[in-house]
Amino acid sequence: MRILVVEDEARLRDQLQAALEEAGYAVDTVADGELAHFVGSTEACDAVVLDLGLPQLDGLSVLRRWRAEEVAMPVLILTARDAWHEKVAGMDAGADDYLAKPFRMEELLARLRALLRRASGAASAVLEISGVSLDTRTARVSLDGAPVKLTGHEYRVLSYLMHHAGAVVSRTELIEHIYAQDYDRDSNTVEVFIRRLRTKLGDAFIVTERGLGYRVGEPCA
Amino acid sequence: MRILVVEDEARLRDQLQAALEEAGYAVDTVADGELAHFVGSTEACDAVVLDLGLPQLDGLSVLRRWRAEEVAMPVLILTARDAWHEKVAGMDAGADDYLAKPFRMEELLARLRALLRRASGAASAVLEISGVSLDTRTARVSLDGAPVKLTGHEYRVLSYLMHHAGAVVSRTELIEHIYAQDYDRDSNTVEVFIRRLRTKLGDAFIVTERGLGYRVGEPCA
DNA sequence: CCGGCTGTTAATCCGCTGTTAATCGCCGCA
DNA sequence: TGCGGCGATTAACAGCGGATTAACAGCCGG
């Protein structure tokens, strides 16, 4: 899962990046509205954390422009405390949730999980598919009840696949959502991670659709 | 364990700070309600000692605001003797315990220990994990029955880890809960204390989860 | 002034990552 | 049915960065 953080204050931006990366996300950070709009429109982000007070182009405008362009990813807005009018304006502009500053990092993480969960249509924080269960709160994975140790990138690959259970996910899609920034690789990084996951979770769990990509769970019609 | 002390009277505030530090806690002190609210909302404190009579913003309001924001840490309220209505109001506002002034420092320490224990879900005042036992009353540690001498910070690190047994604790989290005030270190202070604990308690006791942090005891599901 | 506690620096180790390359196997085609 | 090609699989390895560890320097209290 790849998150775009839009925050002008360097200190908070770094904190956000650190916390999100620690939680297992790929993180892009951006400091001004213009760039935020560009990255959000161009890159394949799964969610956005958007501060409203920004130089260049303020957060609300960015959000409105995204929505006007049908950029649909969930957006979590950060507002100053007590600025309830900003909250209202934000929700009207198409925000999916908001959080008043100052806030607890854990709360932000929890809300973000909720947004991502909703976006993927899952009801629970624990995804389970044919014996493999993935807890999005603790980033822990188990196979038939037995805990499985995954590395950071292995977890991201698996998490993305399981959030899109039943769908065929192409190599490019995986790369875009698993790495921040632009990351062109001509090599077979994805295949290697698929391999590593298969040795840990059993060969049959991840199905390959030749010429298309990989799939987890029953194909959706 | 990091405690926030909110008390406007300088003399008592200093006494509290001294006693708590001697008991092995990291202590932040704050003299007025506004600041108290800010610190409590922002910093990672494990418990609060809150005087009700405060300038700016009184203690009850601070507490209510925290609870409204879902700031959940245990709060121990200090009230004037015989002000039973304050006690009732305090409990209603979300206090976890109260203590009438004047009080014995030992009683405050005992009540605080009880709060911290409850918060971490422990039943006893002595935490024991795979041969290592930590007595929260005396701040003494032993390994397989044999007493182990720890320094102040070593004790705090170990105590925090054992209060969160089974959970992975990140370096940042440790730093936040072990030092009062803001304390940004770019160096590997935490690793060093982990090392020192490992040499005293055995290498296997503290497990490292690469890229995430450290853990003590069996991973919780 | 001494000794222990702290925190910093720096050398080293080790697991993760991504690359290369060899092999496999599916599929189309003759 | 056999062959060739291409995509997928798999193993092996080198570089990097996080983690470990030792050694030292500053500080504080006695």
Automatic annotation (TrEMBL), chains A, B:
All copies of domain OmpR/PhoB-type, residue ranges: 124-218
The keyword DNA-binding is assigned to this record: yes
Sorted UniProt keywords: DNA-binding, Phosphoprotein
Record-linked InterPro entries: CheY-like_superfamily, OmpR/PhoB-type_DNA-bd, Sig_transdc_resp-reg_C-effctor, Sig_transdc_resp-reg_receiver, WalR-like, WH-like_DNA-bd_sf
Superkingdom of origin organism: Bacteria
DNA-binding region: 124-218
Pfam families in alphabetical order: Response_reg, Trans_reg_C
PROSITE patterns: OMPR_PHOB, RESPONSE_REGULATORY
Domain (Response regulatory) ranges: 2-116
Modified residues (4-aspartylphosphate): D51
Name of the molecule in the record: Response regulator transcription factor
DNA-binding keyword on record: yes
